[in-house]
Amino acid sequence: MDQETVWKDTQHLVEIRRYAEALPVVRKWAKKGHREALTLLGKMAYFGWGMKKDDALAYDSFYKAAIDLDVEAVYMVGRCLEEGRGVPKDLPKAFEYYAAAAIRGSVDAQLREAICHEEGIGTEPNDQKALSLYVDLTKRLQHPYATFRIGMAYLNGKGVTKSPENAFSWLNKALALGSVDAMNQFRLIGTKSKRDERTTQDIFAIGADLFAGERPKDAIAYLQIAANEGELRAFLLLDDAYREGRGVPRSPESAVSWLQKAAVLGDPEAMHRLGRRLETGEGIPSSFPSAAKWYAEAARRGHVAAQSDLKGIRGY
Q1: Does any domain span residue 130?
Q2: Structural domains of the chain, count
Q3: What backbone phi and psi angles, to 5 degrees, belong to 232?
Q4: How far apart are CA 26 and CA 42, in angstroms?
Q5: SS3 labels along the chain
Q6: What are the distances in angstroms from CA 168 to CA 125, 135, 140, 174?
Q7: Which of 39, 53, 135, 314 would staple 48 via disulfide (CB 3.0–4.6 Å)?
Q8: Would you say 66 and 104 are in contact if contact means Cβ atoms under 8 Å apart?
Q9: Whether the Cβ atoms of residue 273 and residue 279 lie closer than 8 Å to each other
Q10: pLDDT at site 223
């Protein structure tokens, strides 16, 4: 079998997720400096395909392939630098790699470059530059996420004059292109698209999985939707998010606000947590009488720890 056929067969194994079978060939070719094999080995190490995640191997492989001008590898070096995986975090350098890969045609890199401009990651915030990149992606590729970001720019007045009408138009275009983010945005404002067949429980399950994994930032919108639709477990995870600063900036006050909403809806765990915050003064002015009130409400609903805390605060 000739080498080209061997490599195509190996790539096919990766495509059908038979990573363990592909890995020996990928490693062998990567050692020889094969550019595509280096990039593929980097992805396998980065994502844990057929092997344990190995950030050092991922960065080393991507860097070697990037030197040989593999565009995807250049983009992935930027990812490693932004996330501090296999190399010390360096946001300005990550931005440089994104820009370099974007110039060479990487759609992922252009999208990340736009996000960096929008959020000020490794570069000064520049809403107009971010918007121009999103517009370019939309014009050339009808990119769903870029189209969604244009809609959000009009909604929030970032880089363009604020216009709810234009925002609605662009968000609908993104929805038609299959943007889940646009679908979520409509759901957040209480307008469920006909395309959206997900139940509240489906939404919560997605958010809980993202929050428990490595993408807590992506979980927040799902958890907010689920909370808006009355899923009490979502309120508790949003409390965790804001209290710990996972996926959102840390805000004890915002954490308490989610607990208050869930407590009013009758959730015993939220009542108990709220009692604790009122007792300690975390995110809310300390008040022992109010803490005792919420402990008592939770205890009445059978919350064992609340019963103990109520006894401790009252003394009987």
Answers
A1: yes
A2: 3
A3: -65, -30
A4: 10
A5: CCHHHHHHHHHHHHHCCCHHHHHHHHHHHHHCCCHHHHHHHHHHHHHCCCCCCCHHHHHHHHHHHHHCCCHHHHHHHHHHHHHCCCCCCCHHHHHHHHHHHHHCCCHHHHHHHHHHHHHCCCCCCCHHHHHHHHHHHHHHHCCHHHHHHHHHHHHHCCCCCCCHHHHHHHHHHHHHCCCHHHHHHHHHCCCCCCCCCCCHHHHHHHHHHHHHCCCHHHHHHHHHHHHHCCCHHHHHHHHHHHHHCCCCCCCHHHHHHHHHHHHHCCCHHHHHHHHHHHHHCCCCCCCHHHHHHHHHHHHHCCCHHHHHHHHHHHCC
A6: 25, 16, 21, 10
A7: 53
A8: no
A9: no
A10: 98
How far is the C-alpha of 10 from the C-alpha of 251, rounded, in Å?
Answer: 48
Mean pLDDT, consecutive 10-residue stretches, the chain (316 aa), reads 84 95 95 96 97 97 96 98 97 98 97 97 97 97 97 95 96 95 93 90 97 94 96 98 97 98 97 97 96 96 95 83
Backbone φ and ψ of 282, nearest 5°? -90, 110
Separation CA 150–CA 148 (nearest Å): 5
Residue 116 domain-assigned (yes or no): no
Q: What is the CATH number of the domain that holds 242?
A: 1.25.40.10
- Which residue has 């765990």 as its token pair? 269
pLDDT of residue 1: 60
Q: Answer yes or no: do 191 and 247 share one domain.
A: no
pLDDT value of position 269: 98
pLDDT at res. 315: 77
**Which residue range(s) make up the domain with 218?**
200-314
Q: What is the pLDDT of residue 233?
A: 97
Within-domain flag for 109: no
Q: Is residue 119 part of a domain?
A: no
8 A C-beta contact, residue 310 and residue 295: yes
> Is residue 226 packed enough to be buried (19+ CB in 10 Å), middle (13-18) or exposed (0-12)?
buried
CA atoms of 236 and 177, how far apart (whole Å): 33
